[in-house]
Design the sequence.
């Protein structure tokens, strides 16, 4: 019995370790999907992607029309539940909806069951920002669509019914994940801890601040920002700077097409402490029909994977491929996955 008990204990430990690994390699995105009824509007859904197999493993329908505000659902853990929040604007001069008085919805989904726990309607509002903060708080910004509707710019929690609960006003000029101007840099955006990126003199820079975030400690000049997309990541005390090709498409015009003025896509890997270059690795481009647009920013680091979602729409009329870039830090191999439309 003692041996059996030990084996059972080991089996349970292995099971939960495998479960944890499985959960940490699932990535969630919001995207558009054509409606089955040949509607003029696209449906909106949250999709779960297994990063190991690089497949969409689940889809949660959210709405039949509207413009997606946050292309990645906001994850929170509240009331012992993992939830995802997605904001959708409707009835505005925006994508995938007909102009009207305007309203917004915040949809709360249970990650485990895929059930919608709550849909909160914000009548006469257009949401501008929905982001997570420390301690399961949310930063919410919205403009009123009529003169008698006040602007929303505050810090919120969630009630037990998963509705917004006001906590306090946000500081004037507050923006999540950014600093005030620092030296010649005017809008540093957070990569990791005291590592930021910004643009200056037609180049991107990675900048390091002192512990107080008041002084510039070091900087790394990257490629010109017009030549390629720039993706920034920190994983295992390494700084990754990806330079990827992109295209510019509009509904009736292609400004920059496949192979036009391209670079050799690559990732440069630096020591996070000294900014010394450790390696430079070629990265494959997407296939011709799965083009991405110009979009630079900070990646997500999920377990062994560096992930960036090219899901931001840049055209009110045109639906373009929504693409996921996945980089495996164990093998230094990159892959592309089409997950829907943007």
Sequence:
């Amino acid at each position: 019995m003692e041996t059996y008990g030990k084996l059972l204990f080991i089996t349970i430990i292995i099971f939960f370790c495998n479960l944890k690994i499985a959960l940490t390699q699932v990535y969630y995105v919001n995207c558009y999907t054509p409606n089955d009824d040949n509607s003029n509007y696209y449906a909106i859904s949250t999709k779960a992607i297994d990063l190991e197999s690089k497949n969409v493993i689940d889809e949660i329908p959210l709405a039949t029309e509207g413009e997606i505000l946050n292309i990645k659902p906001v994850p929170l853990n509240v009331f012992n539940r993992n939830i995802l929040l997605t904001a959708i604007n409707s009835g505005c001069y925006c994508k995938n909806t007909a102009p009207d008085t305007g309203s917004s919805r915040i949809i709360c989904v249970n990650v485990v069951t895929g059930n919608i726990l709550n849909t909160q309607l914000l009548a006469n509002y257009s949401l501008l920002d929905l982001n997570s903060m420390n301690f399961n708080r949310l930063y919410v910004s919205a403009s009123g669509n009529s003169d008698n509707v006040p602007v929303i710019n505050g810090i919120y929690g969630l009630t037990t019914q998963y509705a917004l609960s006001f906590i306090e006003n946000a500081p004037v000029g507050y923006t999540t994940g950014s600093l005030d101007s620092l030296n010649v840099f005017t809008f540093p955006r957070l990569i990791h801890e005291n590592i930021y990126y910004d643009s200056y003199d037609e180049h991107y820079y990675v900048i390091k601040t002192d512990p107080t975030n008041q002084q510039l400690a070091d900087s790394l000049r990257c490629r010109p920002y017009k030549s390629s997309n720039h993706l920034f990541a920190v994983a295992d005390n390494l700084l990754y700077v990806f330079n990827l090709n992109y295209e510019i498409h509009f509904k009736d015009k292609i400004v920059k097409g496949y192979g036009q003025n391209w670079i050799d896509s690559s990732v440069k890997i630096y020591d996070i402490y000294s900014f010394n270059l450790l390696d430079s690795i070629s990265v494959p481009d997407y296939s011709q029909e799965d083009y991405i647009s110009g979009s630079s920013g900070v990646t997500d680091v999920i377990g062994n994977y560096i992930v960036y979602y090219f899901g931001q729409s840049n055209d009110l009329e045109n639906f373009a491929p929504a693409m996921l870039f996945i980089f495996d830090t164990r093998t230094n191999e990159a892959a592309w996955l089409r997950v829907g439309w943007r």
